[in-house]
Automatic annotation (TrEMBL), chain A:
<dbReference type="GO" id="GO:0005524">
    <property type="term" value="F:ATP binding"/>
</dbReference>
<dbReference type="Pfam" id="PF00217">
    <property type="entry name" value="ATP-gua_Ptrans"/>
</dbReference>
<dbReference type="InterPro" id="IPR036802">
    <property type="entry name" value="ATP-guanido_PTrfase_N_sf"/>
</dbReference>
<keyword id="KW-0067">ATP-binding</keyword>
<feature type="domain" description="Phosphagen kinase N-terminal">
    <location>
        <begin position="11"/>
        <end position="98"/>
    </location>
</feature>
<dbReference type="GO" id="GO:0005615">
    <property type="term" value="C:extracellular space"/>
</dbReference>
<feature type="domain" description="Phosphagen kinase C-terminal">
    <location>
        <begin position="125"/>
        <end position="367"/>
    </location>
</feature>
<feature type="binding site">
    <location>
        <begin position="320"/>
        <end position="325"/>
    </location>
    <ligand>
        <name>ATP</name>
    </ligand>
</feature>
<keyword id="KW-0808">Transferase</keyword>
From TrEMBL, chain B:
<feature type="binding site">
    <location>
        <begin position="320"/>
        <end position="325"/>
    </location>
    <ligand>
        <name>ATP</name>
    </ligand>
</feature>
<dbReference type="Pfam" id="PF00217">
    <property type="entry name" value="ATP-gua_Ptrans"/>
</dbReference>
<feature type="binding site">
    <location>
        <position position="191"/>
    </location>
    <ligand>
        <name>ATP</name>
    </ligand>
</feature>
<feature type="binding site">
    <location>
        <begin position="292"/>
        <end position="296"/>
    </location>
    <ligand>
        <name>ATP</name>
    </ligand>
</feature>
<dbReference type="InterPro" id="IPR022415">
    <property type="entry name" value="ATP-guanido_PTrfase_AS"/>
</dbReference>
<feature type="domain" description="Phosphagen kinase C-terminal">
    <location>
        <begin position="125"/>
        <end position="367"/>
    </location>
</feature>
<dbReference type="GO" id="GO:0046314">
    <property type="term" value="P:phosphocreatine biosynthetic process"/>
</dbReference>
<feature type="domain" description="Phosphagen kinase N-terminal">
    <location>
        <begin position="11"/>
        <end position="98"/>
    </location>
</feature>
<comment type="similarity">
    <text>Belongs to the ATP:guanido phosphotransferase family.</text>
</comment>
Amino acid sequence: MPFGNTHNEMKMKYASEQEYPDLTKHNNHMAKILTPAMYERLRSKQTPSGFTLDDVIQTGIDNPGHPFIMTVGCVAGDEETYEVFKELLDPVIEDRHGGYKPSDKHKTDINAANLKGGDDLDPNYVLSSRVRTGRSVRGFCLPPHCSRGERRAVETLSIEALASLSGDLNGKYYALKNMTDAEQQQLIDDHFLFDKPVSPLLLASGMGRDWPDARGIWHNDNKTFLVWVNEEDHLRVISMQKGGNMKEVFNRFCTGLTKIETLFKERNHAFMWNEHLGYVLTCPSNLGTGLRAGVHVKLPNMSKNAKFEDVLKKLRLQKRGTGGVDTAAVGGVFDISNADRLGFSEVELVQMVVDGVKLLVDMEKRLEKGQSIDEIMPAQK
Amino acid sequence: MPFGNTHNNFKLNYKVEDEFPDLSKHNNHMAKLLTKEMYGKIRDKQTPSGFTVDDVIQTGVDNPGHPFIMTVGCVAGDEESYEVFKDLFDPVIADRHNGYKPTDKHKTDLNFENLKGGDDLDPNYVLSSRVRTGRSIKGFTLPPHNSRGERRGIEKLSVEALTSLDGEFKGKYYPLKSMTDAEQEQLINDHFLFDKPVSPLLTCAGMARDWPDGRGIMHNDNKTFLVWVNEEDHLRVISMQKGGNMREVFKRFCVGLQKIEEIFKKHNHGFMWNEHLGYILTCPSNLGTGLRGGVHVKLAKLSTHAKFDEILTRLRLQKRGTGGVDTASVGGVFDISNADRLGSSEVSQVQLVVDGVKLMVEMEKKLEKGEAIDSMIPAQK
């Protein structure tokens, strides 16, 4: 693949307008914001590891997008991408994250004790609760750009760190490339197994290279804490369980994450973080907390109500089908999660989910009884 | 995507064994031949445009292959790839092209008059005849590696050359990105339209980047001569018609190709060619002539005969389904074409098809009459 320094210099022989991508049919954040003048200013740059502007935007060129869904259309190849290409990425971040400015500071709070309530969502409606985030390991390039050597080093470090977890977090690592059939079946049944990405959004940015080398899944014996290694980010950390006790899920999430971070720091490979962007991840949409906290909740009446979308918006929540992003709801069961990632802390985002879902369930119960929900409509959070 | 010079130098921080791909489950020519020592020796090299060994082999790493079909597993990014990475390409070429040695010379013969016969294949059996090849344009890098500026440069030159053709070659160019629905429908009905590659063999090598920018189809008014621009090679040139007059198809092919080559030469962009490898193309399997001359032929009885595959091998022919490579035959109709590309000339390869198909049709007729074909089984060509 062609985008390193030497070929980038070769490209400089062509005028900027000859190299500028055709984005006329495109609908993603990158296409909205990139201009020929911006392209011209940035095209000669590269990060210390050699990531160039064309590397950043390739996925957005190859995937024009969808008239209704705004994809991001650009990725980072390393920590420095967000600095070297800030002229493009700052406006993309602002557009994606509700007007977040280059001068804004992001607050990190993974102190689970700061969450109020969250242990009493009605399990008749709230079927399961889950919190996930991503982490990037400093000193390595990100999945669109990393070499096999780097990816394997991330895996080795991860295995070491995870193997030293104990108690409720005692668990086992399953490397994708030498999983037995039995192990694979079990992981599928547990809904833990991740497969080679098929989404062209991911493949076009190079994240599928060398699959399944150095990819794997770790989970604890209780099957409530799960880590994906080298999928879309270096690490994806997931805490989940049946029912509505989001507080417990979040407790485990924060405890586990903090332990893992300590182990990585001890090995001189902290997580990528800065006070402006929070946790640095591959996709600009996941900057900040990288956190998606959500529930699978039965809302057959509420979801048919004319005010459903408006309520979600006011609560700063989003809906997905129960298969995750870009899937449809089945049997009135929705995946409801926080819409924000950056500019709010982890505690704040989970609080919005907890409070918002509680309200949605109250509304559902009212509608079941034929009552109106107008008096309990929320203000914009 | 990460494989240029800077990131390549970055990777040298990791030991060879840390970067060497895991090819233990792989079955392709590259995986058969690449050793850790070889990788260690060539991993710090790059072509003048910045193509590296990881660029060459990525498609073979990402596509382990099939137990029965041997894919090539490596591609060239420019003309110099075959020289800079000869440690790998020479053995791959020998393995793929019947022991072709680094010292061998390849003969080019596009003088259609040297073909004997070929105008009388029985149209009751031979439904259609077709000859295709590829051409690469000097001064540009190849589809796995080229930039948008280069690809558009190729398109511009090609449009100029192709739209200046006259007589039976007079035709029109249809860029993929601005095709009308009506044009698209017509091209599909004519079986001319090529679509964005879905084969991971191609997409993993980077050939689909920026689709459909710079891609298009030219065909003559008679719909017997067709050129694909910027698909898997810079140019794919196809001559085809119904029935069994392969001689006419080959004549049109040679005349058209030579006219096109002249125009490109005038612009100081001749075709990539050398006396060892013949015409230089993206995939090592297409080196030499890049030529596939074939027919769709009804061989309902012969194809079920125990010696069918043996006959094909002896005639130096291969069979495919009527959908092309990796498809099944339908209704006893097979695509029969030359198996060789390198080490024999265009004329001799088409001669093999003409003579071989003639023989097989005679065998088919005998089998229809319930007669034996044992005395007709040919010697190994």
